Amino acid sequence: MGFSKEWDELYRNNRHMSIWPWSQLVSLCLRHTPLASCDGEFRVLEVGCGAGANLPFFQTYTDKVSALDGSEHIVTLLKNRFSEFADNIKVADFTKLIPFESKFNLIVDRGASVHNDTASIEAYLDLAYKQLEEGGHLIITDWFSTKHGYFELGIPQEKDSYTRSGYDSGPFSGVGNVHFFDRELIVNLTQKFGLVHLEHSITHVDGIEQQGAAWSLVLQK
Question: What DSSP string runs through 68-132?
Fold first, then answer.
């Protein structure tokens, strides 16, 4: 499937331009990987990095930071903002190609692969596994759960009921495809990894009828 034109359009319209590191991601990185005590040779890759909210967090611990996004527009902005490692920020569809020769100690996916269908996510996980050093980690947050209140409100793909679209209001309006997961699917997709941590969170926000629900996971090669 690859990167959606919808997300490129959102970035060009200055939407979803998060600038602060995501707390859940920070917590999982510091609790489950050697990032905080690395020797400077620790290599980190963020796939689907968006506006680069998490990149300054990684820079706190290592100067071996790389990033991918499918939007040429957002990558151009990031190269200007992070000129010190601009050569390591690239335009790519990470479900088809991770264009780096070096392997990584940590690959991070904060709500990026969740906007693909099941087959594309499976292909991405295979690529990520190959790109990790032995013992390296893949951390994924915000894989939406089938318990999410918007799961039943989306239009399922004909041969992939986990992938939904057609949202004209709410948090998934204008983002194209949205993938939802249950535990069985996660275990099947990640079976070549060691499953270090799996967390399911349900949130209820006052004034919003539909509950939120998402998975976070830490995988190790």
Answer: EES-HHHHHHHHHHTGGGGGGEEE--TTT----SS-EEEEEEESSGGGS-HHHHHHHHHHHHHHE
Phi, psi values for residue 111, rounded to 5°: 65, 30
User: Is the separation of the CB atoms in 86 and 60 below 8 Å?
Assistant: no
Contact between 97 and 68 under an 8 Å Cβ cutoff? The reply is no
23-82 pLDDT, tens digit each: 999 999 999 999 999 877 899 999 999 888 999 999 999 999 999 998 888 898 899 999
Q: Are 147 and 162 in contact (CB under 8 A)?
A: no
> CA–CA distance from 216 to each of 72, 161, 196 (Å)?
28, 21, 11
**Can you give the pTM of this predicted structure?**
0.91
Q: How far is CA 33 from the centre of its chain?
A: 17
Two tokens at 38? 């690395």
Residue 219 in tokens: 């995988």
Give me the amino acid identity at 18. S
Taking only the tens place, the pLDDT of each residue in 98-151 is 999 999 999 999 989 999 999 999 999 999 999 999 999 999 999 999 999 999
64 sits in which H/E element: strand 64-69
